[in-house]
């Protein structure tokens, strides 16, 4: 852009104008050619000069009249409006310097010459010409000249007049425009004044009605005091920027978030620790304040659950929990409404008088009144009852510490039912000088097993012969001691006095249990209604009381504890009902709330999976309880093994009270779809889904169809079920009718005949016509299935290329009908499965299933040939070395370990037999634990391992933390754990023996045996051909692997288990495995030129994991190694992040240094797991941190309480500031763990 004026005689520049503050504007040259020519001539730069788009002329060379809107008041205020007229051209030539801008309205302050190029310039020229003439001219000439001058002046003035007339017209237009604008602005101003006036009036009204800020705060506090706390209000008015919420405030927050999912997030603040759950009580107080008096009545149930006895660190509370053996839980349960809530948790804590009274008083503080307590009758609980004041069954109550009312004690009725069943099966009773035993029940079950069709299918041998675990099953006890059993005894032993006595005994027990476990006041069956103290219920309880009080278990002289507990339960029920009747005028009590089933369900949720064998740790229990309390309970178990799964545990509407506060989370429990197969099998097992009561199902009665009485009743039962199901859909067929239209005919003490008993489950009695058709269908069934055996179809067999693995699994021995395939399956004891597994790729496929079928030569060859038909070649079979499998090997041709193969029936190649290596490892461990070995005239036993574990337990810090007493002392079930065997017989154990018993020859011998076993197992179970550890690579027949297998072969071949003269089967199996591996590799090498074999594929267990190793400072050698292990882990974790600290280094850069037969020292063994050896400097700092840890936790025991890691970190950080915080934090956490 040009910066100077284009006129040749002008030197004004933009810089100069800005510096001198001149009111100068620079104009671009016009595009019009004629006008442009005038501008160019004015610049006087020559005819050849042509302006560019950047050339400009300054406003000095233009007249005021050349600008638009001349004289406008906006002219000086808005320079943007100073625009040239379209036809303006420059006419002013500057002859003097331009002065600085003044505060006036003139365009320029100093212009010495304004000459017009046409009129003004011509006038001046003529005047000068006239003046130059001689004054001596005559008068005529003078007059002519004077006239000429006047004419010129007239013309000039005329042109000026026209010019000013045009300007006047312009000014008139501008004036009219401004007049209109002024009028518009005046109107707007008038409107604004009117609006301001209205606003002022409204403002005055609001001002009179408003209150002061101080008064507003006081009124807000008054209005919100019932909803918000003082802390919340202070936070709202910004009186406090940070607030420490109290527990009561947190509980109210949950209430405010009732219908919000986000309330779940707040639950992390719930404080769940041992003792009374005060946070939960504070939460409940927000609900219980608004309850009716009757709804505040509560029952306490308490029981204990076994937990895993381990010590764990809780990072959330920064404290150590455990070890504990069991967990005591107290559950509050409302008596007249469906809710429940855990309110006490205690580890290794029996219930005492002090704890019980403390819980009762705490509940009373939140307006919950305890009227009863429930527990089983174990010795500790009975002692607690007596301490409270409930000394016997005549006075089964104690006094409420606040209200002074009676609190009744209820022994758990389902538990008592199991005890009655156990005493009846184990010994029997003497009652009214008569012996009552279970012999006839055994005979009844035997007849039931012989009958091809029976109505008492629910009673089996499993109800009479049970393991200790199965005896905990309440369902089996209730099915055995049921009215159905009693009526069956009378039906099938009509003239047997012993059967009549046993039936009467069972009926009384069944009636008592139905009264003590009632759920519905409007139940269809009269004796299953909730307890309302009617005459029938009173009579049934009276007869049960008299029978239990007078009967004696055979071999016992005195009344047993379970009898006293039953009498206490009956007395407590009577007295509690009378109290509630007098206090609230109740009509009934659903007595299932006076049982412990609520705790059994709660414990099932805590276990999550595994049934009764799953014992979660104490810390896991606390976390799961927190999730249950906030309505995020773990998936409820559906236990199909009927272990603890019975109808008494079904609570359709009872939920945790705290869950109603936390709101639903839109998570709907999805249950399996109940299809035809489930319905049919439920009927077959006495669980008709359409029946309201699944405990007692109706049975058949006499018809004229088939063989025995039981089979006749069984057929009528089936037809009755079908009639009930389809009677309303096909009424014209008249399939049957309900024998009892009035359910009150099912009386308490006069049971109906077996014929009418059919309708208890809601079934029908088939009509005569339908019964005849049923006989025809039964005959057709027998023609298809002669001799009482069901016809079964063969299974198709197909799949892919593989190694064959086979093993068996125990199954539930029941018979079921499968509607999908229209066949009956079962009963079976176990299931045999054959799995196909490809050699060189990762997949597997079951190809054979056989129930109660051992593997034989014929089956094995058939599978191999079928696979060959689809181009799958079997090269090996794998199984454990049980006797049946060994016989199968021999039948196939693998007679001994020197020839561990047989011939393929099609290809005629060798198929090698592999005994399962993990199974063999467990056998080696078992023989070593139970007896030991004799090898090279030396005895090898595990005594030193026991001593090593003892030292490990005494050491406060140890690198061999994986080896514990659980590796040496195990139950039969725990001996099936392969991991424990692999951890015990590992190189870590061998190196530890050499490290801590350096001069002990016995330790050296044991270490050598363990090393050989470990190397063999690593060769027999590798997974990766590129493993970092040399001896963990897949088998490729290198020299180290061959040497390791050779030494293992020689050792197993020559050693003898102590007390045995000959080689045992497990030894032969190991030798067979070694030879099969070598021969199979040679075959595959010759056939496919393979480079390796991942031998884990010739094992039955594909989930064996490699075992870790360990590493070095404090008191004992183990503790020194343990500290170095921890520091090595930290060095490995932070070495790259803080290289300047030189925390440590990896001792083995080459993993091949981990050789087969020359194990490294224990120090270098540290790096097998990828850890580091700590540097000397870091080791010294580690000693300092360890000393600080011991000062905080003297005598090798962890200080109890919260914040232990945080406190340790803070102290170490103060003494060792050169270490980063995260390194110190890592040490503190790992050291505590």
Automatic annotation (TrEMBL):
It comes from Anopheles epiroticus. One of its GO terms (molecular function) is zinc ion binding. Residues 161-209 form a coiled coil. This is THAP-type domain-containing protein. SMART domains: THAP (SM00980). SUPFAM superfamilies: Glucocorticoid receptor-like (DNA-binding domain). The keyword Zinc-finger applies. It holds the Pfam family TNP-like_RNaseH_N. The keyword Metal-binding applies. Residues 1-93 form the THAP-type domain. Keywords: Coiled coil, DNA-binding, Metal-binding, Zinc, Zinc-finger. InterPro entries: THAP_domain_protein, THAP_Znf, TNP-like_C, TNP-like_GBD, TNP-like_RNaseH_N.
